[in-house]
Amino acid sequence: MPRMVVSIDGVVIKEVELSKERTTLGRRPYNDIVIDNLAVSGEHAALHMAGNDVAVEDLHSTNGTYVNGKAVVRQELRNGDILEVGKYKIRYFNEAEDPQFEKTMVFKPGMVPAAVAARSPVARPQAGAPATPAPAAAIRVLSGAAAGREVALTKVVTTIGKPGVAVASVTRRHHGFVLAHVEGPQPPEVNGQRIGNDPVALNDGDRLALAGTEMQFVVL
């Protein structure tokens, strides 16, 4: 199924599967894909799906819609195309275009936003070395009303926290997981240390703190 992976400053913040004939994108809350940023128009663009083909249409937005760096009015999308809406980058994936693509292609090295790849401390395998896939992992809640709950990290990106207060993302890389600050005045802590602007690699047993909630990253 075609999908869109939304990122800003190299950090993936959401993934949306396209299942409707018309999917709208914009700042207003009634859009299918909501991007709450003043550079994004209330009704910015629409994605039209016919079978497995998807086209993007700019809805007379103030700042325009760009595909691979070029302003468009309406354009058919190809697997791997990057839409730019304000400061947000939205990568389009459609495995059905090529049966050689695996369902997990978004996890492969080089398929994450370049800024994350450049800043992440997770080491890349050397050329010719066999790749080690990311292990199964989860976030275990240790305090608060949700204590004891375990969230499996099966998606490309899993967001944790309290929307509007503090949100972080845990992104599955090809051979590990990284934690990044998404929103809120206070970034999350890893083992008592507040993280900065760069994604931080997670290790089994790491203790996390976000919006007053204690959590633990565990490899299953």
TrEMBL record:
It comes from Simplicispira suum. Residues 23-72 form the FHA domain. SUPFAM superfamilies: SMAD/FHA domain. InterPro entries: Cell_Proc_Reg/RNA_Proc, FHA_dom, SMAD_FHA_dom_sf. Pfam families: FHA. This is FHA domain-containing protein. PANTHER family: NUCLEAR INHIBITOR OF PROTEIN PHOSPHATASE-1 (PTHR23308). CDD domains: FHA.
